[in-house]
Design a protein that fits this description.
Pro_4_hyd_alph_FE2OG_OXY; transmembrane; oxidoreductase; 2 helices; Pro_4_hyd_alph; procollagen-proline 4-dioxygenase activity; four-stranded antiparallel sheet; mainly beta
Length: 211
Amino acid sequence: MEQSKVFDDETGKAVLSSERTSSGAFLARGSDEIVTNIEKRIADFTFIPVEHGEDLQVLHYEVGQKYVPHHDFFTDKLNINIAMGGQRIATMLMYLSDVEEGGETVFPVSKENFSSVPWWNELSACGKQGLSIKPKMGDALLFWSLNPDATYDLSSLHGSCPVIKVVMETTLKDDVGEETVKTTSLGAAHQLLGQQGCSGDDENEAHSTQG
């Protein structure tokens, strides 16, 4: 895995930034049966064809790592070009591990009554700054970046809160005996869905943001 990048609003190029401190790797579209099945389920759920999705990105957050609030839609001329995949429409985020504290996906400008969620008391200070989803292994989150009329949905502003505490103990059994493994990081995968979608390292570097 490599440090995750963000796109520059002026140039549209992928750059390193202190605003995003996770690491990640891309899984090419249809690269194996598991990826293909995941992509098909996303397409079935969103009604957006598989071909319109960017490559899946697997993300790894150590304690303290985060991604400050941002939008997934593009504002630069380079990335909205249909040859690059076009404008992003939606994001599907899938949680690969549980988090004891922190690591929420937060929507800070949501107009919902976010303090009424049943997990409010379990949220970190960052998570209480907006409508937040607490990571739970196996859960998935879909949100839209554009309104039905193709204008920007500004309420889609979202971020990944710093991971504070992740301690999951798993007991593995084999012929030799038992071993207890502790997981101390947050894992997530996401697919960004657009007008056309793209694949390939250069295009995906430019099309790499996380929710």
